[in-house]
């Protein structure tokens, strides 16, 4: 009895504190897990951040040349260069042929060396899976895949000639890639699941068809022939259907599918329901150029590829993107099942005014974002490799519809220094990464290194302001010299420094690319960083006049701003503008005020 009473008392007391105990347990579990959680993506306002060790991470990156991580001793020779570039992230290839030299026999020693090499230097990694496709081709497929072309078939061109592009329509190809990729992810989890040196993975590299818009392999054509099969099933006895028009594109390309009866049959197949459902469910949010293709063909929700998307070469590309996307989806899902790091795809961009096939057709391109999203829901985002001049245009095309911007490759040139500020400031990019980052004779003098040194200081502020509408970026050259923005209660006119005409080079035919970012920390208060920019502050029409209260040059030390010089004299043209010359990037703190 006594026992029972005391037991009851104990139970009552226990239950009284139960919520507190549960809460405490939950909080401690959460706290214990947060820093150690797998790197993942998280929305912050309009931005998406990469979270590593429980904190947002801004990737100041560089992608290695294709062959650099194929040898540990070569990596050892370039680590010192990489360490001097002020970067915190390396994008490094992992090669299918080197991790699986014999079928089913995996050797991850290179990957292990790479991860330990980076970790030792406090550098993070994004792994690039050079699997089935690398720049459209299958050059990194293992020898046992390359040589066994019967088991692992290639894509066919319109003359039935195989190209060294593994066909995405063949299950054996998919299974082999999937197996290797999931073994890789399993290994990464094993040696890095606690440390998170590896933060993200790129699945394949620059997928696309060259030089044709689509694959003419019989299996590809089989994929199209669902309708024909269906017609046979329901009409094979009745013969209501008497004939099929199998070619609709004659004249679209010099070598249309006339020579390939199977290919033409394939075009009679229905667009899969999954894609049709995506179109219907996302009609209001489709990318405008894709929506217009669909609308031009009549916005149909049933029919063959050409019925739904039109009798254009672009339909070949849409069709091909779908099947590349389905393949990649399976590879990605298999990898994520082992270790669900964020995974993305990169695109070789479509050269303007060129037809699919004249550029790598069907990759994760701006006009195909919807197709890829529908086909590959396990892919977290699509990313542009920007080698073309109109950097701002490409950034904008990928910063759409909730696709966060990350630039895994950019042409390695002095302009990168300004482009990094622009991408991170104007598009809240998760990161920026010039290609072949190690290929510099003088890393200390690389313009990107100077920018990264500044961006490193600004990182906490940038991350805090991402997604809040308080940060903008600028990018200027001779063709684009001025931007006007409204931020923090003031109108700000930003220009290329050479618009002042004070630098002797301003008379040159070509101006260097310059740029920067501005972060508003309060009404009339801003941090401005970059190089080759000049900002002035005309008051709003009918409003008070605006004056510069102060401009300070300085640095962030462990996240705290330290002013070093007041710049209210010649450096600001006696209070007329804020200027950062083209000499080197820097940070200035600006305070404005209004008077009348
Ligand atoms: C883009 C590719 O993704 C890289 O691997 C490399 O081939 C570069 N092009 C070369 O410019």
What keyword list fits this structure?
596 residues; alpha/beta; six-stranded antiparallel sheet; 17 helices; globular; binds (2R,3S,4R,5S)-2-(hydroxymethyl)piperidine-3,4,5-triol
How would you characterize the overall build of this protein?
Mean pLDDT is 89; it is low at 27-33, 224-228 and 240-264. The chain contains 17 helices and 23 strands. By secondary structure, it is α/β, with parallel strands linked by helices. The protein has helices spanning 2-33, 72-83, 96-99, 109-120, 143-147, 171-192, 218-224, 226-235, 261-266, 273-281, 288-296, 305-309, 313-338, 369-375, 391-398, 416-426, 447-465; strands spanning 40-44, 47-52, 55-57, 59-63, 89-95, 124-134, 154-156, 162-166, 198-205, 343-348, 381-386, 406-410, 431-434, 471-476, 482-487, 490-496, 514-522, 525-531, 533-536, 545-557, 560-566, 578-580, 586-595. Helix 2 runs parallel beside helix 4 and helix 13 crosses helix 14. The structure holds (2R,3S,4R,5S)-2-(hydroxymethyl)piperidine-3,4,5-triol. The site of (2R,3S,4R,5S)-2-(hydroxymethyl)piperidine-3,4,5-triol has 7 residues, from loops.
């Amino acid at each position: 009895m006594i026992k029972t009473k005391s037991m009851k008392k104990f139970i009552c007391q226990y239950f009284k504190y139960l919520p507190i105990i549960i809460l405490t347990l939950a909080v401690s579990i959460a706290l214990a897990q947060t820093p150690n959680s797998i790197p993942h993506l998280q929305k912050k306002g309009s931005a998406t951040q990469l979270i590593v060790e429980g904190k947002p991470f801004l990737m100041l990156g560089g992608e290695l040349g294709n062959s650099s991580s194929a040898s540990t001793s070569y990596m050892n020779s370039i680590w010192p260069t990489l360490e001097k570039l002020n970067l915190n992230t390396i994008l490094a290839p992992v090669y299918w042929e080197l991790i699986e030299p014999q079928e089913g026999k995996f050797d991850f020693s290179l990957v292990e060396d790479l991860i330990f090499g980076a970790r030792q230097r406090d550098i993070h990694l994004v792994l690039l899976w050079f699997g089935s496709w690398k720049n459209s081709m299958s050059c990194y497929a293992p020898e046992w895949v390359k040589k066994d072309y019967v088991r692992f078939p290639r894509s066919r061109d319109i003359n039935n000639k195989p190209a060294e592009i593994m066909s995405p329509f063949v299950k054996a190809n998919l299974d082999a890639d999937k197996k290797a990729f999931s073994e890789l992810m399993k290994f990464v989890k094993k040696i890095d699941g606690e440390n998170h040196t590896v933060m993200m993975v790129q699945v394949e590299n620059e997928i696309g068809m060259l030089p044709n818009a689509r694959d003419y392999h019989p299996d590809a054509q089989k994929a199209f022939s669902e309708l024909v099969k269906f017609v046979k099933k329901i009409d094979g006895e009745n013969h209501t259907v008497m004939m099929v028009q199998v070619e609709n594109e004659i004249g679209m390309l010099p070598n249309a599918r006339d020579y390939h009866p199977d290919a033409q049959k394939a075009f009679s197949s229905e667009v899969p329901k999954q894609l049709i459902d995506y179109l219907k469910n996302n009609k209001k949010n489709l990318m405008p150029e894709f929506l217009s293709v669909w609308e031009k063909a009549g916005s149909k929700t049933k029919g063959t590829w050409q019925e739904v998307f039109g009798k254009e070469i672009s339909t070949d590309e849409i069709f091909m993107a779908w099947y590349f996307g389905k393949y990649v989806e399976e590879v990605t899902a298999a990898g994520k099942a082992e270790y669900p790091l964020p995974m993305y795809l990169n695109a070789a961009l479509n050269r303007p005014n060129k037809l699919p096939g004249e550029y790598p057709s069907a990759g994760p391109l701006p006009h195909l974002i919807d197709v890829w999203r529908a086909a590959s829901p396990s892919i977290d985002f699509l990313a542009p490799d920007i080698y073309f001049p109109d950097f701002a245009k490409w950034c904008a095309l990928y910063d759409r519809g909730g696709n966060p911007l990350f630039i895994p490759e950019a042409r390695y040139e002095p302009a990168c220094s300004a482009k990094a500020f622009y991408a991170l400031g104007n598009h809240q990019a998760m990161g920026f990464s010039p290609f072949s980052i190690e290929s510099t004779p003088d890393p200390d003098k690389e313009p990107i290194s100077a920018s990264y040194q500044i961006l490193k200081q600004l990182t906490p502020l940038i991350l805090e302001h991402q997604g809040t509408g308080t940060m903008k970026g600028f990018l200027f050259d001779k063709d684009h010299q001025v931007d006007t923005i409204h931020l923090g209660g003031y109108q700000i006119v930003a220009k290329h420094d050479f618009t002042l005409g004070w630098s002797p080079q301003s008379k040159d035919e070509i101006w260097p690319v310059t740029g920067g970012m501005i972060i508003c920390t309060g009404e009339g208060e801003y941090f401005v960083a970059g190089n080759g920019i000049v900002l002035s502050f005309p008051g709003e029409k009918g409003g008070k006049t605006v004056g510069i209260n102060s401009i300070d040059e300085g640095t962030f030390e462990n996240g705290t701003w330290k002013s070093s010089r007041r710049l209210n004299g010649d450096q600001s043209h006696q209070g007329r503008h804020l200027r950062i010359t083209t000499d080197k990037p820097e940070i200035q703190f600006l305070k404005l005020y209004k008077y009348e």
